[in-house]
Amino acid sequence: MTDSIVFLNGTFMPQSEAMISPLDRGFLFGDGIYEVIPAYDRKMVGFAPHIRRLQNSLTAIGINLDWSEDKWRQLLSELLRQNSGDSLAIYIQVSRGVSPKRQHGFPDNIEPTLFMMCYAIKPPVNYDDGNHQGLHLVSQQDLRWRQCHIKSTSLLGNVLHYQSSQDHNVDECLLFNEAEQITEASSCNVFVVKNKQIFTPSLDSQLLPGITRAIVLDLLRTHTDYQVLEQNISLQQARSADEIWLTSSTKNIAPAITLDGEKIGSGKIGKTYKEVNSLFNQFKYDY
Ligand code: PDD
Hints:
D-amino Acid Aminotransferase, Chain A, domain 2, nine-stranded mixed beta sheet, 26% helix, binds N-(5'-phosphopyridoxyl)-D-alanine
């Protein structure tokens, strides 16, 4: 296998040569943030909103790395140019940097560590082709921290939720808070369709402001007559939904067909999903 090319602190290099100190606060504390940007045939989806969210996450945790969009675009294009593959995720991670010693407080005068790599993702799945089933979900109480709007590398809560869905032999978990309202999935946002209305939880600190979510909302509002509502969705509403979709940069829009072993709607991939997915494939590079 050929070594992929990564970017670490200003230098492109083979992945096998990239080394980070064990005193990096990303390693010691999960003290960092990240982004995942999809690129198909070297074209990125949602470059500008991903970079804006990266800046928001940096500001939220007090890391100063105020690069222009142009600078990011240049670096990411170069990273894509140096790596092969038609369906890639660009991963960007910024940690607070290397500590002189292990201490909780922010050390003075350290430089952030910036690491970027590409990895292969599945090309967009066509759930219409008869070869792909929809996803199966299990509901779980959301046990993560209360700042899920920050795209933090401290993902242990998400990792444990995801692994538990795998242990239940399903694809993802549908997370709900103490009030039994849906937040998101372990690595995706959630949409619910009921009687020609499309719902997604409104943005707050319990969920990530997903870029795919934002694109889907914009497409629905611009190109369809559906009523689109950002508001609380109870677990009970999810159980009686006609359709549920998950959205993320690596899954695009994925329809779910069961929740806790019960069919969602007809238990088949829904017609609204097919409409929105075709809009997404048509317009995704406009974002
Ligand atoms: N995850 N919610 C969570 C908790 C996520 O981790 C993600 C994405 C999303 C969807 O956001 P977006 O549409 O911007 O990808 C929602 C990425 C893909 C990951 O961690 O690999």
